[in-house]
Protein: Cytochrome P450
Amino acid sequence: MINPTNLSSFSASDELATGNFVSRRLFFLKHIQIIELFIALFVFIAIHSLRQKKHHGLPVWPVLGMLPSLVSGLRDNMYDWMTDIVINQNGTFLFKGPSFSSLNCVVTSDPRNIEHLLKTKFPNFPKGPFFRDTVRDLLGNGIFSADDETWQRQRKTASIEFHSAKFRQLTTESLLELVHSRLLPVLENSIKQSLTIDLQDILLRLTFDNVCMIAFGVDPGCLRPGLPEIPFAKAFEDATEATVLRFVTPTCIWKIMRYFNLGMEKKLKNSIKEVDEFADDVIRTRKKELSLQFDNNMSKKRSDLLTVFMGLKDEDGHPFSDRFLRDICVNFILAGRDTSSVALSWFFWLLHHNPMVEERILEEICGIVSEREEVKKGEYQSVIFRPEEIKKMDYLQAALSDALRLYPSVPVDHKEVVEDDIFPDGTILKKGTKVIYAIYAMGRMEGIWGKDCREFKPERWLRDGRFISESAYKFTAFNGGPRLCLGKDFAYYQMKFVAASVIYRYHVKVVENHPVEPKLALTMYMKHGLKVILSGRDESEIQKYLKTN
Ligand code: HEM
Structure:
């Protein structure tokens, strides 16, 4: 028998359960609708964003802009990623960063636009306040970051100095000393001990020592036997790395970090302090030395940049401040410390894959030295190349230029628009726009270099066996216009001298399966260095080419 109380209680709970079930269903349905709505919205946004790819080169997402594509591009070779986009967009595209960032910019690899910004409308495209603000702590008012009169004054003085006979003598003598008393012994030692070496690291040490001799007139000794860690060199490297990080960090964040002395900003502050202490010490010592020279009327004068700028006055007739002298030297070290060494690293890597080019370089070198008396007598090893011999090495210069075309030491560079402008290709530029010129991409564009643009082919630089240079707006590795690299001639001399001295004596073989890819930095380093094994060149190889001449 059914108890009515039970019945009523049964139906009450049943009702409650049914009610719960219905409200749960409603609740669920509501959520399903919301989820469906979100999915539909997402699909709509995704389709809309992806459709923008056709027009803008990359999908444009709400709020994030093109950031997701940039992040995925950063995972692989960022420069190849950028190359594909500019090629698809006929040379120029507008990168839309997230709405909360300062990443919006125009990216171009069109030589007409490059000429417009580097030469025709040069005053309208300075480095700009964003760049200066980001690098100020390390570079101060030095040539690399300055614009207008501050830049012009340094450029003029340094340019006169770079073209003076005394300076040329300093650069050639210091390089000769470094190559013959440091580089070649280090390489020879690696053969004796059957060592694998990181050629990029060794070349970086060489050019750091060299540029410090040119800028400060002091030798830090990075390439001394045992390859010691030099605190100043380490501090300089840390300071540049931390400064580069600022470019990919929102400005307000790194400024807060700097204020509270946190993370990378703490590292930057400490390393700049060490760089400054080194610079202060050199400046103080040099001042003493110069005053002693003046007292003793000594005739032997130094010709490094620091000494030259110490002898000059500013526009008010006062000697330059110690801070300004420090800025000048630090900027030159930055400009010349790693550009030639990374170029040489890519060059040796390309040679490893193109033995025919190496043969032709060797043939050229042997042809040039075969006129020497000691070579005629069979003394090959003692050859020290003379400046006039280096000058004659056209094929080597062509090979280095083609390496720089494919792997420019400065893969991308940047400017800021002062007044509204229009590029020759029709791109509209608003005041304050950042412009990135993609130098790496330019070397890989069929429209600029022809169908074989991705091949390493020194012959493209030769006419009747002589090296012919290209327009700076087509081959932009050394920049162009009024801000053309000041060290270009010296860099070629340096690279040719080092390459010839090594190739004449050694085979350079890259270690099997050594991964080679560019690192994301201001300069195009090899991310994992360049691990190589050297072996001495057989005399018969030299003989072969000497006999034919
Ligand atoms: C393969 C070697 C080199 C390459 C590819 C190279 C490339 C460049 C590039 C692209 C710039 C323009 C940078 C910019 O304005 O953002 C530049 C500027 C400069 N380079 Fe070089 N460089 C090399 C070697 C050197 C060396 C060895 C020195 C000095 C010892 C040097 C001194 C300078 C200076 C002083 C500037 C600034 C010029 C100015 O703003 O007026 N460079 N270089």
In short: Residues 143-144, 155, 211, 214, 332, 335-336, 339-340, 343, 404, 409-410, 413, 477-479, 483, 485-487, 490-491 surround protoporphyrin IX containing FE (CB under 6 Å). The first strand starts at residue 92 and ends at 95.
